[in-house]
Amino acid sequence: MSHQEAAPVPSAPSTGKPRKAAFAAWIGSALEYYDFFIYGSAAALVFPKVFFNPDDPATATLISLATFGVAYAARPVGALFLGHIGDRVGRRTIMVWTLVLMGLSTFLIGCLPTYAQAGTLAPTLLVLMRVLQGLSAAGEQASANAMTLEHAPEHRRGYYTSFTLNGTQAGQILATLAFIPVAALPDEQLYTWGWRIPFLLSAVVAVIGWIIRRTLDETPVFQEATAHAAVAKMPLAELLVNHWASVLRVICAALIATVSTIFSVWALAYATSDAVGLDKTGMLWVNGCANAVALLAIPLWAKLSDRIGRKPVFLIGAIGCAVLIFVYLWAISLGSYPLVFAVGVLFFGVVYSAANGIWPSFYGEMFPARVRLSGMAVGTQIGFAVAGFAVSIAERIAGGDGSNWVGVAVFSAAVCVICAVAVATGRETHKVPTAELGLRPGELAATSAPVSTVKAESAAL
C-alpha cells in the first residue's frame, strides 16, 4: 500500500491493556535508565581517576565527561535502525531487546580493567560499552512511548505515556541511590572496587526487565496494520519524505534534555570540584530528591496537558528552566547547600517535569502510526545527542575551575528558548483522535469515511 492510500482505522485501545502497557513501559524504563544514568554519576565522580591519566586531572575530567556524551552521539544511529525495525516488526520486539543490550553493556563496564592496569585500552573499551548503551537507549523510549500511546484511551494519552518518563526518573533515582553509599567509601576502596558494584548489579536489572516485557501484547494499532498488510515497507524513507517538518520540530524541542544533562552531570561535577567543594554525597541527595519530586510532578503535568493542551504545559517547563538554571548555578557558586537543595528540587523536580512529562505524548502525536516509532526515535535522538555533548560544551565554557558558570547558564537558557519556539509554532494535538494523529490533509480526507463507519458500527454494538 502506498503512503497516499487510506490506512485501515486502528482499533480502539483495549480497556484492559493501557495500565499493563504503562506499567511495562515504566518498569522497563526505570531499569534501563538505571543502567544509563549510573554512568553519568561515575563519569563525574570516579572515571577521571580510574580510566584516564591521573597526572592531568582537568583534562581527565573533560575527557570523562565527553565519554558521557558518546552514548548520545550513538543514539541517532541506533534510532535510524531501531526505529525502522520497530515500525516494521513491532514495538514489543524493540522494547525487549534494547533492555537486554543495555543490561549487558552496563554489566561489562563493571568488569573493565582500569587505566593503571591496561593503559589506553581501558578508556577505549569504556567508550565502546558507552556506544552500546547509546544504541540501546535510542530505541527504548520511542518504543515504550509508542506502546503506551497506542494502548491509551484517547482523552488520557498524555497521562498514560508519561509513565515512560516517570520510569526514566525512577531509573535516575535508583542510579543516585546506588552511588550514595559507594561515594561514601574511602577513596582507596571507591577507586579500586567500590565503583564497580552499581554496574555489576545491572545483570539483575536486565533479567527482571526481560521477564516483564516479553509478556506484553503488541499494540492494537500495529496488530491491525499487520492484519491489513499496511505496515510501512520503508518507514524511514516515508518519514523523511512526508513528515520531515515534524522530525525537525521534534529535534529542536528535544534539546530540552540539555537541562537534564547539565543538572545531573555538569552541575554535579562543578559543585563537587575544588572550586566549590560541596560534598559528593550531599549533591547526590539533591539529584535524588529532585527526581523523587519529579515522580509525582510528571503525571500531574501530563494530566493537565490532557485538559489544556500539550503546548502550554511544555512552554511552562521550557521558559521556567531558562530562568531557573541561572538561580541554580548561582546557588552552587555560593556553596550554600540548603539553597542548592531547595532550588534544585524546584528547578528539576517541578519545573523541568512540565516539559519532560508531556513530550512522550506530544512528539508521538505528531506522527501517524506507520512511522510513529521512527519519527520519535530519529527526532528525539538527534536532539538528545546535542544534549549529551552539552556537558562537554559547558565544561569548555566554564573553564577548568568552573568560574564562568554564568556562561553555562546563558548557553542552557538559549537552548530552552529554541525549544520554546519550536513548540509554540507547532500544532496542538491533545484533542486529535488517535486514528487521525500525524495525518496530512489529503490523508485525513481519505480516512474520514472509514472513521465515520467505525464510529457508527461501534454505536450499533
Automatic annotation (TrEMBL):
Q: Where in the cell is it found?
A: Cell membrane
Q: Does the keyword Membrane apply?
A: yes
Keywords of this entry:
Cell membrane, Membrane, Transmembrane, Transmembrane helix, Transport
Q: Which regions span the lipid bilayer?
A: 21-47, 59-82, 94-116, 193-212, 247-271, 283-301, 313-331, 337-359, 371-393, 405-424
Domain Major facilitator superfamily (MFS) profile positions: 21-431
Under the heading Pfam families, the entry gives: Sugar_tr
**Coiled-coil region(s) at which residues?**
none
Instruction: Give the main localization category.
Output: membrane
InterPro entries in UniProt: MFS_dom, MFS_sugar_transport-like, MFS_trans_sf
Instruction: Report what the protein is called.
Output: MFS transporter
